[in-house]
Every structure is written in C-alpha cells, then in structure tokens.
Amino acid sequence: MPENPLIIARLALVVPLNRLFDYRVPASMSTPTPGCRVEVKFAGRKKIGWVVEISDSTDVPEGKLLGLESIIDERPAWSPALWKLMIWCWAYYHHPPGEILATALPPLLRGPSPVVAPLSESWRLTADGLAQDQQKLHKRAPRQAALLQALAQPASAASLATHFENSDWRSVLRKLLAKGWLETCPAAAAANLEAKQGPKLNSEQQQALTGISQNLGRYATHLLYGVTGSGKTEVYLQLAKQVLKRKQQVLFLVPEIGLVPQLQRRVQQRLGLEPVLVHSAQSDGERYRAWYLAASGEARVVIGTRSALFSALPELGLIVVDEEHDSAYKQQDHWRYHARDVAVKRASLEGCPLVLGSATPALESLANAEVGRYQLFRLDQRANKRKMPDWQLLEMREQAVVDGLLPETLELLADNVERGLQSLVFLNRRGYAPVLMCRWCGWQADCDRCDSPMTWHHRANHLACHRCDSRRPVPQRCPACDSLDLHPLGEGTERVADYLQAQFPQTPVIRFDRDSTRRKNAAADILTTVGKGEACILVGTQMLAKGHHLPRVSLAVILNIDQSLFSTDFRAIEKLAQLLTQVSGRAGRGDEPGRVVLQTYHPQHAQLQQLISGGYFSLAETMLRERVEAGLPPYSYQAILRAESNQQGELTRALSQLTAYAESLAAQLSEDSQGLSGAEQLLVLGPMPALQARRAGRHRMILLFQSHRRPLLHWLVKQISVELERLPGSRKIRWAIDIDPQDQ
Length: 744
Ligand code: ADP
Ligand code: ZN
Ligand code: ZN
Description:
It is a single chain. The protein is of the alpha/beta class. Strand 11, helix 12 (284-296) and strand 12 (301-304) form a beta-alpha-beta unit. Helix 1 crosses helix 13 (339-350), helix 10 (232-245) crosses helix 11 and helix 21 (648-667) crosses helix 23. The termini are far apart. The protein binds adenosine-5'-diphosphate and zinc ion (ZN) (2 copies). One zinc ion is lined by residues 447, 449-450, 465, 467-468, 470, 696.
C-alpha cells in the first residue's frame, strides 16, 4: 500500500528557543502556506505557531513526530513583503523566531482567534430610523431621541463620545441597533474633514521635497537633517499628499506616544483624513482594529510608535521615521530590534522611499549619508525665520547653589517671569532627590535588589528604585545608627519644582515627567495649558526634550549633565549632544528670541565648547573621525551576549566557557585579503559585568563581540547561539543577544 507522502511544516513557536519545530501535516489537511498560524501540541499543551517552511523530510524520529492539530489561517496575515521582512529579522537578530513574529502582531492575533473584520465603530440611521417621529419619541425615551438626532449625519464612536461626554450612550446605541433603527457604516462615511493648505515651502524645504519625491515608487533612504523648527514635518506632509494621490499608504513613526497627538492633528488638518494610530497604550481591541484597518487598506495613514513599523500595509508607499536618532526606537528587552534599521530593510523590500528626519542624526545615519547609501538633505534655517537660540554656559564651581540652581539662573528665570514669558528647566531625574543619606554615619538608602541608591519621592512619600521599580517607605531614623539626620542629596524634578514654586509663588510651576503624567491624558492636558501661552515654568525630564512645539518658551535651563561628559560609554557625548540640541530647540520657536543656559562645573570641556560654537554637525564630524580611529561603530559592528541569573557562580562559569569558545573561533582567522588583522575581523571582549551589574536581584554580565565585517560577526553570533543552548546549567541563565547594542 503506498504511504502518504511525508509533508512537514516547520514552525516558529512562541518559546524562548532560536529554532523551528517540525510537525507533520496530516493527510486530512491541506498544506498550509508559510505565514499561516497553526495549532499544535507542544510539551503536552496546545500552542499556536507560524508555518515558516514546508519540507518533505525531518530529523525528528517517526515515533516522536506529532501532527498539526489544526490550521487557523487560510491565508497568511502578512503581506509577502512583510513576511520576507520578518524572516530577515530572524536571521539578523538571532532571536527566537516565534517571539519575533508575536511581537509584530497585535496581541489578539498571537492566539488562535481568526482574522475577522472588527465591528465597525461608525453608525448611520436606517430607513426605519429616519422614519421615526423624533418628537413623539422624545417624550417617551429622550436619550434615544437624542442619539437619533446626533446620528442625523453618520458618526464615529470617537465623535459620539465627545458629544455625549460621560453619559452611557453605548447602552442606548445597543437598544437602537436592536430595533433596527441604526446600522454600522464604513469609517470613511463618518470622517468629514477638510484639508487646509499648508505654508508655502521655503527653498530648502522645496529642494528636499523635490529630491525625495523623485524616488516615489522605488526604494531609497533619505536623511532629512533639519535644525529644530526647520519645517521637516511640513516636508513629510507634502510628501504624504503625493503618496496618497498615488493611492498608496503612508507610515509615520514617532519615538514616543506623547508625540502622536501633535502629528495626528497636523495630518487631520493638512491631509483631511483621520489617521489610524498604533501604540502601546491601546487596549487589545483597539490594537486589533488598527491592525485590521491598515491590513485591509482602509487606513491610508498610520501613525505609531516603534512596533507600528510592523503594521500590515499592503500598499505601503512611504515610511517616515521622525526623530530617527532617538534611542526609544531600540527595543531594550526581549527582541532587541531597532525600528529605524528595520525600517530601512522594510522600505527596500517594499520598494518604497524612506525618510529619516532629525535635527541631531545618529552617527550611524550620518556615516551612511557620507558613503552615499542615504541621500542627505539639509534644512539649516528655521522655517518661520526664527533665529536659533543663544547659548550661555554658567560655571558652578565656587558658587552658591541652592537646590541645584545658581543665583544667576534664578535671575534669568525671574526676568522671564516678569516679562510674562515661559521657561523650561530640564534635568534628567524625576523624584525629589536621587539619594537619601544619613549625615551622621554615611548610610544611604539602597535598593537591595539592584545595589543602587533609591530615589526619594517626597509627594508620594516613598523611596523608589528607578531600575526595578521596587518601593519602600521612607525611614524616619537611620537604620544603621538610629540618627534622625537623614538628608536628601542631589536634585530631581520635584525638588527643583518645589524650590521654584516657593521663589515664584504667583507663577505656575508645572512638572513634566513620568510621575506627573501617569494619568491618562495628563501629558496632553499639560501641553494644552502651556500652549495657551500664559507665563509659567516647566520643570521636566527628557520627555520635554522631544519634538514638542511650545511657541511661548523663550528660555531653556539645563541642569545636571556633567556626568555624561566623563562617561565610559563611547556614545555618551553623542547622546548628550543630541539631548542638549533638542532641549535648546524647544526655546525661541515663537516671536521671542530663544536663550539656553547650561549649568556646569566644566565649561571648558572641549566637546561642549565645540557643540556650542560649531553646532551639532561640526561636533558629529569630529566624533565620526574619532570613531574611525578607534575602530568603533559605525565603522565596526557590535553584538552583545547578555546573561542574567541569580546564581553568580553559574553565570561566570557559563560565560567563561563561551568566551573561550568564541576566542577559539576568532583565533582561526588570519589576516584577510584586505589586510584586516584577526582582531579587526573578530574581537571578543569580556566576560564583564553589565552597566547595571545587578538588577531586581539578578546578576548581569555581558560578552561583547566586535568586527569590521558584518557577516563575520553574524557568523560568530550564530555559533554562539547554538553553543549556549548546549551548555550545562544554561537553563538557569536568561540569555539575550543584542545586535547593534546601544549600551552595555
Ligand atoms: P520641525 O518638524 O522641523 O520641528 P515643523 O514642521 O514643526 O518643524 O515647523 C515648525 C513651525 O514652522 C511650525 O509652526 C510650522 O507650521 C512652521 N513652518 C514650517 N514650514 C514653514 C514655511 N515654509 N513657512 C512658514 N512657516 C512654516
Ligand atoms: Zn546613620
Ligand atoms: Zn531595584
């Protein structure tokens, strides 16, 4: 009797193993297409997975080979280009493929739910609904009558929610739907926006627009390097307009959720349509709806944060990555992808142009522009002819500093307050004080899971560890010597804001950090208040530094940056230069000229001086030359193997074994044809403690690999990723591979 031919589906399952799993396709099922979800038994439990390959052979012995339980999707949820991208990501990031695929889908599609059209959230009257006598109805059921009236024009849930404020209009809606007086309708029927003409582009903007639009319909990466307020967003919007005309979709990425509403408004105004939003604060239902609208082509413009890069967009015609230098584009746990880098790959697979915009491009991007891989466009002038702000360094040595502020700084703030202007005080620390210390014996409050000081939060009245989020009450007495003399050291936003509020009792001092914006809409409310333009002082963390347009802010004060000037991280100065330029860019965007004040103990610091006199570009060029000489990225490539365990001994042993293995592989390389030494081809550094050597009770160590040849680096990482699964004791260690790491 002829046997059924063996058909093997090789699956990506959501398990922390970097490999595929073979299952037999039973004769009763048709062969699933790669990209489809299937259900299987794994370790005795049901699990879903994605078919990656179909094969006619397997290494799994006959007796152990399981069959698929069921096939969930008839067609893959991915477009062909997106699926190719995901497979590329797997090869590039050496991360378990199931976890990669799961990251790229909305949570509801990580389980077995079928892909179905979500219920529409827009409604209109039916013929029956139209025929109702509203006056008669009003006497009997006033809320039903009100809803009928509100739906005289088709309307979406969002607009009904605004119209009826907090009242429970949804239960009334359900009644009317049940009566057959209402029906759902496409979102487009309820969107009725008017597109406004934008400003006439200046010649720099026009040049960029013309240059980029020549590449519509094909792959090209553009670096739009424009000083803060130079009108980059206007260029994006004009481009988007052309792409929409070509009946293609546009994807905008912003680094953080706080920047979404601003861009959403500008898209509504300029393009006259409702963009679909994708971000982590959405419910699973909202995420699914957004995914579906994009995948079905109904959404023409998608705006989102990092993971929105994986939106299913079958007619993608343009990707814009705004503030491309922002480290928030790099995922810092699980699958550590960089959304900007993956965007480059996606654009090339989709055959569409990509625009990377920034006032402070990453050195990686500038290096790519230098060799012509990216096309560079520069906007050196502020669009509305505003001048760039003036800088001033204030020396802190031997000065009377109170709660972090120099008397001179206080005077400048007072001056601004008097003139009814807005000011901004930036420091990168929330809470009241970063350290609570006993003045008697020197004891300080440390987190016992991370070995680092806990921040004192005065208002919330607790100590909090900013690494692991653990909290405890503030001790009344020193636990070591029983003294009452516990003293806050250093300043956080709370302390500076309290001090300033005491100095300027008539002026609102508004804190803008993660603590003060926890409540939903809190950040937007603050920005709206500030946008009204009345005098105030904003005290905030780097949330303030990002892209916000605050036209009435004329003075920016920067505190506490000295640590970065002497950091061992080779990227510290690059990141600092970006931060300082971005913060300063918040000042002087309106009528009043801008001014930036930086307090420092090191006003003569060479790179600080160069930044202020020559600007970001000049400093970036110097930094690039230094990176060439040091053989550091972007002129070499790095990968880090990260390992965490609560057992220090196991950790050190396993990493030493891997180091020896990596070194033996590297030692096999001799000078190559282009004269690179073995070490330039592959360098193995470590094992060494991670930057945060202990976090949440776990010891953390790293092993760093560096190479001038990207393929060699990936080859080594691949060998390592296989080897580490074989190590005895490996299960007690949490492993992660970090390709193109941004920190240690
Ligand atoms: P960026 O994105 O570079 O920070 P924006 O596009 O937000 O800059 O522009 C900054 C301000 O200048 C905005 O208020 C914008 O409306 C205005 N603007 C942009 N381009 C022009 C132009 N060509 N003429 C006049 N105003 C402009
Ligand atoms: Zn003490
Ligand atoms: Zn901690």
